[in-house]
Amino acid sequence: MRIVIKISRYFTINKITMGFFIAFLSSASIYLEWIGVSNPFINTILALLTLYLWFIGDKISWVWSGFFIGLLWFWWMGISFIYYQIAWAIPFVLIIISFIYALLFYLLISFVYLVEKHLKIHNLFGKALILLVLSYIHPFGFDWFKPELIFTNSYLGIEKWQFFLILLSFALAMYKKKILFLTLIIGAYPYASHFQKESIINDKIKLVSTFTPVDEKWIPQFKQKHIDEIFINIQKAIREEKEVVVFPESVFALYLNKEKNILTLLKDYSKYITIVTGGLYNDNNLPKNSTYIFKDGEYTVADKVVLVPFGEQNPLPKWMGKWINELFFDGAPDYVGATDFTDYTIKNTTYRNAICFEATSEKLYEGEPKNMIVISNNGWLVPSIEATEQKILLQYYSKKYGTTIYHSINMSDSYVVFKGDVFYE
Which domain covers residue 384, as residue numbers? Predict the structure, then answer.
């Protein structure tokens, strides 16, 4: 009886509503960006309201906020199942994702109230701490949820010290019941980024956008059409006197290193322009998702380092991962990732290689690379907010590490991210 009563406490309407509004406000700027609305003032207000509700929320509303964050931020994860003919699994994916984040929030907030009970440290400071460290906790290696991400396109900064200052101002203002402490937020204004706007974008790089649906991409009768389009774009870039042309991830829907005729043509064209393109790579029958760099009549291959959890590599124990692959992916083997990232030089400029998901991983920004070329295929997740979240994450890392990011995409427009600002081709 006590267990039933305890569980029923989590299904109180006002607690569920509170959790939903926290998640709704935290994701609102993403959805506004998705429909083409990006206003730093609105985004700042939405972000601050999100934090306020988190601070006044109790344990149960925190758990529900985690549940709805999983739902509102990541509902798109199941869309690719449509292309595997298992659309029936999408609701189960949504529920699992939501419960994972609900569990994460439950464990963290329970720890906060446990510390308050035994060490007499007010839960306001505990909440500030777990919001600060949440961006370091990655379920199954998926690191797209970072609380400070809500400030990416706002008037406040995304650096850890800036986020700490914002959280501290809230905790102190509510603990001391003095609104004056909220003035500390002013210190989180990103002064430097608003005064250093000189552009160092390389306008000699041509970013190609393709709009090839996934269900067409792998059909044999369309193969030659897609290949012809690639070479048409190469010729166009040469006529425009570009130095580099970049194509999306797996634009060659084949094992490119096994296609001698295509390789010969690409090497010939690379005497006039550097070609960066996505393609599969067969490494002794091990599949790899790779970038091919054709330059001066030769080519090198840069393999993907950070693989998509469940999409390219199963993070579960081997026996369980094999069962999942058999059930959902027709027994297809996992891709094999490289052990370290690849940097390559074009015209005396060094670029960090990144393929889709890994560009949104902190690991790829080790050493604070000045330039990065990213190739993506977002066709698996169309239509959804995934491409918008990806762009916001790239803005976040561009601001944090000062990296200029050149992003070529399939199924959405390509763009350059310079100091957090987005410039479309």
Answer: 205-424
